[in-house]
C-alpha cells in the first residue's frame, strides 16, 4: 500500500500543514521509494538571499497539483511509495556544518533504499548531496539545468558557494566530467577562460541559443547521449526566464519558458536516475501568485513522474 496525497474532495487544498503535494510527513525513510526532503539554506548565495525560504513555499504551492500526469501517462503514487521526510536542520552560519548535515541525511535516505528529491535552498547544497550519492553509486553522470556554469573556483577566497559546487564535485571525483551536461547556460561571463575547466574535463554545455535554435527534442537527445550510468539531476530555477520565474537570487534574462522546462524534465525518462534537486527559489522576490514556487513544485512533480515511469518499466 503506497502513501497517497490527501484527497482534495475530502480535505480542502488550503487545509492541513504544508507538505509536498499534501503527502504524509514521515521522517523515517525506510520503506519509501522516494523521499522528499527540504534544505532551507542560502548561506552560499552571492547576490540576493531568500532561497532558505524556498522549501516551505514550494510545498505550499504544491497543494494544487493533482496526482495524475496526463502528459507522462502515470499516477506516480500508485507506482511509488513517497513521503515528505521534512527538512535537514541546516546550520545557517556555517557552510561546512551545513554540508555535514546534508551529507548525513542524504546518506541515511540512500541507505534506506529511497531516492531523494531535494528542495533547496541555494545551489551550494548540491555538493554534499553528490558526496552522499557518489559514495553509494560511484562517480555520477550529472544533468544540470541552469543559466550559470557553477564551475568557478573561488569567491572571496572561499572554495564553497553556489558558483563552485560542480568544480568541487569533479575535483572530488563525485561526477564524471565526460558524463556531465549543462543545459540553458547564458548571460555575461567573466571571460572565455571561464570554460577552460570545461575543456579540461570534457563537460558538455548546451547554451540557451542552441536550445532555442535546435529545439527541446534535440536537447533531450544530447542529454541521453551524455548522461549514461547512474545520473543525478539538478535544476536551478534561474534556468527559466525571469518572466516566468522571477523569484530567484541571480536572475538572467532570455531563458527557458515554463513549458520548455517541463518538457526537458520529462525527457529524462529512461535515464538511471539516483536523485535530483530543485534549487534557488527565493520567495521574497517572487511575482504575483508565487509563480516561481508554483513552477518549481510542478517540475518536482514531473521529475517524480519520470521516476515512476522507470518503476513501471521495471514492473
Question: What would your notes on this structure say?
Answer:
The structure is a single chain. The chain has about 325 residues and is an alpha/beta fold. It has one domain (about 25-315): Ureohydrolase domain (Arginase, Chain A, 3-Layer(aba) Sandwich), CATH 3.40.800.10. The protein contains 9 helices and 8 strands. It has helices at about 55-60, 75-80, 95-110, 125-135, 165-170, 195-200, 210-225, 260-265, 290-315; strands at about 35-40, 80-85, 115-120, 140-145, 175-185, 205, 230-235, 270-280. The protein has an 8-stranded parallel β-sheet, sandwiched between helices. Helix 1 (about 55-60) packs across helix 9 (about 290-315), helix 3 (about 95-110) runs parallel beside helix 4 (about 125-135) and helix 8 runs parallel beside helix 9.
Which key features would you list for this structure?
315 residues, alpha/beta, Arginase, Chain A, 8-stranded parallel sheet, 9 helices, 8 strands, 34% helix, globular
Classification by helices and strands: alpha/beta
What is the distance, rounded to the nearest whole angstrom, between the alpha carbons of the first and last residues?
Answer: 16 Å
Strand order of the largest sheet: 2-1-3-8-7-4-5-6
Count of distinct structural domains: 1
